[in-house]
Specification:
Elements: H1 3-10, E1 24-27, E2 31-35, E3 39-44, H2 57-71, E4 79-88, E5 91-94, E6 99-108, H3 116-122, H4 127-144, H5 156-171, H6 181-197, H7 199-207, E7 211-213, E8 223-224, E9 230-231, H8 239-242, E10 243-245, H9 246-259, H10 263-276, H11 283-306, H12 314-334, E11 339-343, H13 350-361, E12 364-367, H14 368-376, H15 395-414, E13 419-422, H16 428-441, E14 445-451, H17 454-467, H18 476-485, E15 495-499, H19 504-519
Parallel strand pairs: 11-13, 11-14, 12-13, 14-15
Antiparallel strand pairs: 1-2, 2-3, 3-6, 4-5, 4-6, 7-10, 8-9
Helix pairs in contact: 4-10, 5-6, 5-11, 6-19, 9-10, 9-11, 11-12, 12-19, 13-19, 14-15, 15-16
């Protein structure tokens, strides 16, 4: 049956056996969900992505049945069964007479306001306590889960290798669209090297029973913080995605919280989960690795959804940005400890790019604007109208600002953190301070020189002046003076040129790709 005609019928209240005031619709890359007042009817799309095959009606019926069976482990009262969609004459009805043309998973609607993603978006108070409750629930659920079946065709290590190879192959069509080609090329040898080096650890963990039949798709949209907690929408379409190390499942939710800019909640969750379960050896190594894997999968899945829309369609830009952010997060888990210096004129976008890089990596973000005012004893939010090179922007205070930033960066690097220093770096001597001690510590130093069309600089500076949204005191009347004294950035292996007129997520990907390339030994 024509998909659009079926969709039109499913948006009518008369199609459903229960009374409902309205029908709403949600679409994913693999499903169409129709929501009545009390229920959800989830229909699988007739698609075949290789890792997921719903291409025939019989396969869709089978996987609907599997979805109900498997999800009843986590939400027994929510998954009600499988219902046929039937056609009689020209009308469609669920569980009505006639020819079966489709199947749907029937679920009770869960309270949207208790969904973890909704709670995070609303920034409700008490989420720390909810993370403690969720950590206990996950630990208990993981303890109860069945270990992977002995004698199965592939070991966990083999499955991880196969999943990554599939990821790389299925991501290739999106190189240049949602992931930089250099990032994709550099990630492959790094993953292969990690799996080779950690093979004994991964085998040991499987032998000790840490690989179990779990949820497989554990992110915030699939967590409902009711009492009791309910998880839903586990992986039913591919067993090798559902059976994993408990650390891999934990890493999925940690990654998702970090994607949503809540590293604080991720820290509470992992701390409390650790208190309630024996998670075995190697967690510090494996959790970031699994986070990279989970972020890569989400980037791939979002890219597949993107491919279902044309560039001129409304969802395209949203999906492209989302996919890029997932891949940036994945690369952020894989990069080495590093020191990044953002360099450029006022209005070049250094602080905005720095904030996004810090969000993708968790690295310490140091801003010269804040440091300068701290040294001067001034509130960071206050506006200073000194002329260029005068007052707190004089040469002595500028030198003191860079030295203070260098000391903070040095201490953080020595403790194992990565650091991003966000400043103009208009003088070579200031750049060299950081490059020198980074080299002494054996940490890669990358100077990201941001530049763009002067019209863009002027527009940004006017906007900053009008809104007062940023702590920077850079303003349009000072731009020419700064440009006249700005020392050219010499091209070298530790320098990357960034056109800051491009989209921020795209530029973050370029910088992370450069760091991955350095780590993998390429240029």
């Amino acid at each position: 049956m024509d998909i659009e005609l079926m969709h039109q019928a499913l948006m009518k209240k008369e199609t459903y056996p229960e009374e409902t005031a309205a029908v709403s619709f949600v679409e994913t890359h693999a499903s169409r969900l129709y929501l009545t007042d009390c229920h959800v009817y989830k229909i699988k799309k007739a698609v075949n992505f290789g890792f997921l095959d719903f291409s025939t009606l019989e396969k869709r019926r089978h996987f609907c049945t599997e979805e109900v069976r498997l999800n009843r482990r986590f939400a027994p009262a929510t998954y009600l069964g499988v219902v046929p969609l039937r056609r009689s004459d020209s009308s469609l009805r669920f569980a009505g007479p006639g020819e079966t043309i489709e199947y749907a998973v029937l679920m009770k609607r869960l309270p949207e306001k208790r969904m973890l993603d909704h709670l995070i978006a609303a920034d409700v108070p008490g989420l720390d306590q909810e993370m403690e409750r969720l950590a206990l629930y996950l630990a208990e659920m993981h303890r109860r889960a069945h270990p992977s079946a002995a004698g199965k065709r592939l070991s966990d290590l083999d499955i991880i290798r196969e999943n990554w190879r599939e990821n790389f192959a299925q991501t290739q069509p999106f190189a240049g669209k949602t992931i930089p080609p250099r990032g994709l090329a550099a990630a492959r040898p790094l993953i292969e090297e990690f799996l080779e080096r950690q093979a004994p650890l991964l085998r040991q963990r499987e032998e000790k029973g840490f690989v179990r039949d779990l949820h497989g798709d554990l992110h915030s949209e699939h967590v409902c913080l009711t009492d009791p907690i309910q998880l839903y929408d586990c992986i039913e379409f591919n067993r090798r995605f559902r059976i994993s190390d408990i650390l891999s499942e934990l890493a999925f939710l940690l990654m998702d919280l970090e994607f949503r800019r809540r590293r604080d909640l991720a820290a509470v969750l992992v701390k409390n989960y650790r208190r309630h379960i024996d998670w075995g050896d190697g967690a510090d190594l494996l959790i970031p690795f699994y986070q990279a894997y989970r972020a890569w999968v989400r980037g791939k899945v979002t890219s597949l959804a993107l491919a279902q829309h044309g560039p001129d369609e409304e969802p395209y830009g949203i999906l492209q940005q989302r996919a890029r952010r997932y891949f940036n997060l994945a690369m952020g888990y894989l990069i080495p400890q590093t020191l990044i210096l953002t360099c450029g004129l006022m209005g070049a976008g250094k602080s905005v790019l720095g904030a996004e890089l810090a969000a993708a990596t968790g690295m310490l973000h140091l801003r010269s604007d804040a440091q300068r005012k701290e040294l001067a004893g001034i509130d960071p939010q206050s506006r200073v109208r000194d002329d260029f090179g005068q007052g707190i922007y004089g040469a002595d205070m500028t030198d003191a600002t860079y030295l203070a930033l260098a000391e903070k960066a040095r201490r953080a690097l020595a403790s194992g953190e990565s650091v991003l220093v966000d400043a103009s770096f208009g003088k070579n001597r200031h750049r060299e301070i950081f490059q020198r001690f980074g080299s002494q510590l054996g940490v890669p130093v990358l100077l990201a020189h941001l530049h763009c069309n002067e019209d863009i600089l002027r527009k940004r500076l006017r906007h900053r002046e009008d809104t007062g949204e940023d702590i920077s005191d850079g303003r349009l009347e000072l731009l020419a003076s700064q440009a006249a004294t700005f020392e050219a950035v010499t091209e070298s292996p530790g320098v990357i040129q960034i056109d800051s007129g491009c989209e921020i997520d795209y530029n973050v990907g370029l910088i992370l790709s450069e760091l991955l390339t350095i780590k993998s030994g390429g240029r």
